[in-house]
């Protein structure tokens, strides 16, 4: 047995162990050094850093954010939080023991690079995905208005609410989620109800008109605005009972800042751009 141990350890050039075996042949406990992987490996550090970035991105809805926080807290106790670049997700070696990370690291690269969707051919493989452009357009219009709240809306005596939930039947779970409401700062009374539409019809559909009329009625507002990403061939300006319904454009085809000023100018019947520059 001693000769066999000597052969093994000599092969590994472990002089310290050889000496011990020769001097104490009766001690059959072999001292050896080995590497033991814990959960704090780079594969998991990439996941932890990506989830941490997502929790602070502001992109998660109230429904999704608790799930993302839970995922981060699970990793937090096991993995050291270290900044990781998107490049570390590329060109990694995978085998049968860590193959599950391949898909996760692909998603991590996407989020870390913060690349928006485009129609151009890329250099790297990526999972197919869909973008909810209607929701994205709604959020863009809302964020643009919020960004200009201090400089434009408040001087006009207006404030903004986005995604306001209106319960229309007491005691029942029936409600409307209104895209945008512009209300009077002093009284809190709704002045305009805005419903964004990411589509390019010739004229507003009857269903869209009915929707914004219902929102305005539920809010006690006398003006409902349908906001489109491109100018309509047949714009709308009608009255349904006491509620005035108009179609306006916040165009995405050119300068977005100029498009925002034009949109608010048409809404408020004032030259917003000139006022903002003066």
Summarize the structure.
The protein is an alpha/beta fold and 278 residues long. Helices cover 40% and strands 16% of the residues. A hairpin with a 5-residue loop joins strand 2 (175-184) and strand 3 (190-197).
Overview of the molecule:
- This is Restriction endonuclease.
- InterPro entries: McrC.
- Pfam families: McrBC (PF10117).
- By secondary structure, this protein is an alpha/beta fold.
- The chain has 2 domains: 1-10 and 19-118, no CATH class; 133-268, Trna Endonuclease, Chain: A, domain 1 (3-Layer(aba) Sandwich).
- Helix content is 40%, strand content 16%.
- It contains 10 helices and 6 strands.
- The chain has helices at residues 2-11, 15-23, 42-55, 65-76, 101-113, 133-147, 149-153, 206-219, 256-268, 272-277, and strands at 158-167, 175-184, 190-197, 223-228, 237-240, 243-249.
- The protein has a 6-stranded mixed beta sheet with strand order 1-2-3-4-6-5, sandwiched between helices.
- Strand 2 and strand 3 form a beta hairpin.
- Helix 1 (2-11) packs antiparallel against helix 2.
- The longest helix is centred in the middle third of the chain and has 15 residues, at 133-147.
- The model is unreliable at 1-13 (pLDDT under 50).
């Amino acid at each position: 047995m001693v000769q066999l141990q000597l052969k093994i350890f000599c092969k590994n050039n472990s002089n310290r162990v050889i000496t011990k075996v020769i001097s104490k042949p009766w001690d059959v406990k072999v001292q050896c050094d080995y590497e033991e992987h814990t959960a704090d490996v780079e594969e998991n550090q990439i996941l932890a850093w990506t989830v941490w970035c997502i929790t602070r991105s502001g992109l998660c809805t109230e429904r999704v954010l608790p799930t993302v926080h839970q995922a981060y807290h699970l990793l937090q106790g096991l993995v050291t939080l270290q900044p990781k670049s998107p490049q570390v997700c590329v060109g990694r070696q995978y085998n049968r023991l860590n193959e599950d990370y391949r898909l996760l690291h692909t998603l991590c690269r996407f989020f870390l690079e913060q690349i928006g969707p485009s129609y151009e051919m890329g250099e790297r493989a990526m999972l197919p995905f869909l973008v909810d452009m209607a929701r994205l357009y709604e959020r863009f219009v809302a964020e643009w208005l919020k960004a200009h709240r201090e400089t434009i809306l408040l001087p006009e005596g207006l404030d903004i609410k986005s995604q306001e939930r209106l319960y229309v039947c007491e005691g029942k779970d029936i409600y409307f989620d209104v895209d945008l409401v512009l209300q009077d700062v002093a009284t809190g009374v709704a002045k305009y109800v805005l419903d964004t539409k990411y589509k390019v019809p010739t004229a507003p559909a009857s269903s869209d008109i009915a929707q914004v009329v219902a929102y305005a009625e539920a809010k006690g507002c006398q003006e409902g605005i349908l906001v489109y990403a491109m100018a309509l061939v047949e714009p709308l300006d009608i009255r349904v009972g006491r509620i005035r319904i108009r179609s306006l454009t916040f165009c995405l085809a050119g300068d977005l800042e100029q498009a925002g000023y034009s949109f608010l100018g048409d809404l408020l019947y004032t030259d917003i751009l000139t006022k903002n520059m003066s």
